[in-house]
Amino acid sequence: MASTEKITVYNVADLRATTDDALLNYLNSLGLVQSHTLLDTRLALGFSAFLLSAACFAWDYKLGFESTKQYTLVAVALYTLLNGALTYWIMFVERGTIYAGSTKDGKTKIRVISDSKKPASKGEAPAYKLRIEVEDVNTRKTQKIELEKKFSEWFDASGRFVAAPFQTVLAQGIPLVGKLDPKRAVAAAPASGGQGATKDQFAETPGYTAEILDAIASGLGENSTTTGSSANQEAAKKRRK
Amino acid sequence: MLSSLANPRQAAVQLMNFGLILSTAFMMWKGLSVITDSPSPIVVVLSGSMEPAFQRGDLLFLWNRNVVTETSVGEVVVYSVKGKDIPIVHRIVRKFGKGPEAKLLTKGDNNVSDDTELYASGQDYLVRKDIIGSVFAYIPFVGYVTILLSEHPWLKTVMLGLMGLVVVLQRE
């Protein structure tokens, strides 16, 4: 699991990928059912385009250009269409979705789109931007939530992911998640009373419970499995290098 | 890296992205082939036989359709000869007859004699289907890289090494 590895905190792509992974694991652990339809459609479009061009390569290589050019023309046109559809799918349907799923009863759908934002000034931490869409399947009403938090809230200085504060951010920011994980939602309620907890509030008010601080101090998130033995393994890896 | 291996879908996406880079490049080339009706729509000049019109390393764009007029005397064409892999860029200097069976004779501008020597043994002239395109545009010199790479194979090693170095340094 990525969340147990140490990453380079200066690499925003790494920060985001690790956080994305943790988000999936967290939401799935709450009993949401993940749907892979979006990604599977992308894979189907992409691989059929690739197979088409592989077939085109094969007949061009074996039979030459002249005798196959009608087929090649059709293949090129079809490839352009497939690639266009793929681009459309990625840009306008997926829109950077990292998680799509629904509650077990199938009454509510949730979709999470993530992005990272460069810090406004030097020396600040980059931010993790989330757009969450929660749709009520019956009424077709969609609730849109935007969250923006600094990565430094759930990565310690050495680049280890700490699950507790991150999960708190989600449970507070998204009512659906808060309902599924009331413990986390309540954990910092006195500080912010729901969504919109800014970084400053986190820093100076009792947003961090003793439990969370303990977790941070020991470098252990609740879901994290970092133990002495895995640290030893890491050291062993280094030695081998 | 490791997490992408653990997730088969993520691995499939990475494989697909890599495959699509290759296949898109190939399909763009084939698209150009189909539009120009030429099996090899872009070629690099390898010899100085067409100087001063074209130098070694010039990149030529070919067009192989006779929309308005037939291919005729004065055009610079690229043709291939049976038994020889490398196509030749020369000018048509004589034409006898009309249509696809017209007999064509070519010559390099910078050569002393015509191309009968270069044709396959027993072949005295070209016909239209030997031609893979007429030059309609060119970019000077940019094709020289491919000449360097094919004439000095060690440069390929150097280039691969440099690319590898960039990959290692960028870590992306």
UniProtKB/TrEMBL annotation, chain A:
The chain crosses the membrane at residues 43-61, 73-92. Residues 219-241 are annotated as: Disordered. GO terms for cellular component: signal peptidase complex. It comes from the Eukaryota. Pfam families: SPC25 (PF06703). GO terms for biological process: protein targeting to ER; signal peptide processing. Keywords: Endoplasmic reticulum, Membrane, Transmembrane, Transmembrane helix. The keyword tRNA processing does not apply. It is found in: Endoplasmic reticulum membrane. The keyword Endoplasmic reticulum applies. It is a multi-pass membrane protein. Residues 221-233 have a biased composition (Polar residues). Belongs to the SPCS2 family. Component of the signal peptidase complex (SPC) which catalyzes the cleavage of N-terminal signal sequences from nascent proteins as they are translocated into the lumen of the endoplasmic reticulum. Enhances the enzymatic activity of SPC and facilitates the interactions between different components of the translocation site. This is Signal peptidase complex subunit 2.
UniProtKB/TrEMBL annotation, chain B:
InterPro entries: LexA/Signal_pep-like_sf (IPR036286), Pept_S26A_signal_pept_1_Ser-AS (IPR019756), Peptidase_S26 (IPR019533), Peptidase_S26B (IPR001733). It is an enzyme of class 3 (hydrolase). The chain crosses the membrane at residues 131-147. GO terms for biological process: protein targeting to ER; signal peptide processing. It is found in: Endoplasmic reticulum membrane. The keyword Isomerase does not apply. The keyword S-adenosyl-L-methionine does not apply. GO terms for molecular function: serine-type endopeptidase activity; signal peptidase activity. PROSITE patterns: SPASE_I_1 (PS00501). It is a single-pass type II membrane protein. Component of the signal peptidase complex (SPC) composed of a catalytic subunit SEC11 and three accessory subunits SPC1, SPC2 and SPC3. The complex induces a local thinning of the ER membrane which is used to measure the length of the signal peptide (SP) h-region of protein substrates. This ensures the selectivity of the complex towards h-regions shorter than 18-20 amino acids. SPC associates with the translocon complex. This is Signal peptidase complex catalytic subunit SEC11. The lineage of its organism: Eukaryota, Fungi, Dikarya, Ascomycota, Pezizomycotina.
